[in-house]
């Protein structure tokens, strides 16, 4: 889901999406300052949970190559699970499935 987290440096991160009448874009706020995340060739995106590993931060989410129907409130097309590492988009493979969503990000110590 959408996320909030406190970094090891006491910075506060919040993530989510920004909407207009024609697009939804993923973004995050670091100490209240907005950064819109890249979606590459995708039309829409959603940012979710935030986690940290050392000085790196990760935000889970999905990017959508689709149209969006504001009448029924949902995307019409395919989504790709993804995450952003320090603001750089990384798309995750979906194998033979037509699409998917990422829904959680956690760091696990070895």
Structural write-up:
By secondary structure, the protein is mainly beta. The chain contains no helices and eight strands. The protein has strands spanning 4-6, 12-19, 24-30, 33-36, 44-53, 56-69, 74-85, 88-91.
Secondary structure: elements and pairs:
Layout: E1 4-6, E2 12-19, E3 24-30, E4 33-36, E5 44-53, E6 56-69, E7 74-85, E8 88-91
Keywords:
single chain, 110 residues, mainly beta, four-stranded antiparallel β-sheet, 8 strands, 56% strand
Main sheet specs:
4 strands, antiparallel
Averaged pLDDT: 79
Task: Give the helix/strand class.
Answer: mainly beta
Give the distance, in angstroms, between the N- and C-terminal Cα atoms. Answer: 25 Å
Percent helix: under 10%
Number of helices: 0
Give me the strand/helix succession: EEEEEEEE
Name the beta content range.
Answer: over 45%
Widest beta sheet: strand line-up: 1-2-3-4
Radius of gyration: 14 Å
Number of strands: 8
Stretches with pLDDT under 50, minimum 5 residues? none
The outline comes out as: globular
């Amino acid at each position: 889901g959408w996320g909030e987290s406190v970094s090891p440096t006491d910075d506060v991160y919040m993530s989510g999406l920004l909407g207009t009448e024609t697009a939804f874009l993923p973004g995050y706020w670091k100490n209240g300052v907005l950064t819109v995340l890249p979606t590459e060739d995708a039309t829409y995106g959603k940012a979710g949970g935030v986690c940290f590993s050392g000085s790196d931060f990760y935000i889970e989410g999905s990017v959508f190559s689709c149209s969006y129907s504001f009448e029924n409130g949902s995307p019409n097309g395919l989504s790709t699970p993804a995450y952003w590492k320090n603001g750089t988009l990384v798309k995750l493979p979906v194998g033979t499935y037509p699409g998917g969503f990422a829904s959680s990000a956690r760091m696990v110590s070895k």
